[in-house]
Amino acid sequence: MMSGRSGLGTIALAISFWSLGVSAPRADMIDRSGMEPWEVCGLCHGFDGLSAVAKFPKLAGQRATYIEKQFRDFRAGRRRNDGGQMEAISTELEPHLVQKVAAYFSTLAAPRPGEEKGAGFNLGRELFGRGREGLPACAGCHDPAGAQSSGTLAPWLEAQHRDYLVKQLADFASGARDNDPAGAMNEIAAALQPGEREALADFLAASERPQREP
């Protein structure tokens, strides 16, 4: 039997095997006594919410309401990820603990930009802040003023992994991701012209994220 950090090591090993297609982790593999509920999430997303791998988004300083919604969507099958890890892990965490996990990550220090300004930085800044004909400004939902006026649960995007942002925009455009209740992100992502997806990611990944209220 294992507990605490020993249990974390077992979970990490199980997830590693799973990612290689060996087997899927099950709740009965691990004795999680003494573990905080966010520690399982921290194995991929970082205990400080600053994941080292672009496949896993940084959660530090993210809106708690957004984290809660994504977790519920994975649990209900409204959102999927390529390896299936989140669908399975979301069923292992009791629903009443989801709010606690979201609160933990939302109160961590916001991430710093981890990438240099890419070639599309200036175009991305223009698209994010002002949009263009036929494309609304991303800031209309993804900055605090826009989120308040629009009433959306849109996430903060600055200092996120560039490749993660590109992948999510591609998935919204193709319909592989469709858990935006109004479908706005699917329409917007599909309207992006060649190079604009990467430009937005260049801008956001290299932009400072202010510390915001969780």
From TrEMBL:
It comes from Mesorhizobium alhagi CCNWXJ12-2. One of its GO terms (cellular component) is periplasmic space. It comes from the Bacteria. InterPro entries: Cyt_c-like_dom (IPR009056), Cyt_c-like_dom_sf (IPR036909), Cytochrome_c4-like (IPR024167), Cytochrome_c_Oxidase_Subunit (IPR050597). Heme c 2 binds at C138, C141, H142, M185. Gene3D superfamilies: Cytochrome c-like domain. It is found in: Periplasm. Keywords: Electron transport, Heme, Iron, Metal-binding, Periplasm, Transport. This is Cytochrome c553. Residues 29-109, 119-208 form the Cytochrome c domain. Heme c 1 binds at C41, C44, H45, M86.
